[in-house]
């Protein structure tokens, strides 16, 4: 059998398997892979993220999450500055280089606000809570599981949209057809314009029993331009 024919044969078997899965079944399988003991819902823990940019200096972020206590803390080190956001239930604290007495100039320079703190909490909770976060209220999953080729590999794909108050972007999530591991995702603000970004995932870091992607590499959809890579560590 020629290589091309073999690839088509294997692809046809994968298509058959994909057609037997509903979107809910696929989501269940990928959550079982990444969070087999259902630990995310009551997650208590910390992790570090190193962000390497294409056109900026490296940023180190230390994140603490305690969902039962409604606690979130983010400490960022970049360009000889260290700032921290802390949200605890209904309270918000911000510090810069160890002091809470921050000038208006520095608040603007580093974008230090409680609104920014809440944005970071949502951002890290969403990205590091995937695919479990796809069970959240306001999330709409297209019932059709698509088999598609993305960046040279065959994937099972879910299309996800959200209630307007949750999010306006269109998201696609790509899962390995054999293990159901989440290996890529992308979003569009306006899909007809091919805007937005895609993110390629590689490696795994197990934190509190949850298999989280070790490395995320970010690119623009429109031209594949590289934006940066974030690396997860315990």
Automatic annotation (TrEMBL):
<dbReference type="InterPro" id="IPR045444">
    <property type="entry name" value="DUF6503"/>
</dbReference>
<feature type="signal peptide">
    <location>
        <begin position="1"/>
        <end position="23"/>
    </location>
</feature>
<keyword id="KW-0732">Signal</keyword>
<dbReference type="Pfam" id="PF20113">
    <property type="entry name" value="DUF6503"/>
</dbReference>
<protein>
    <recommendedName>
        <fullName>Aspartyl-tRNA synthetase</fullName>
    </recommendedName>
</protein>
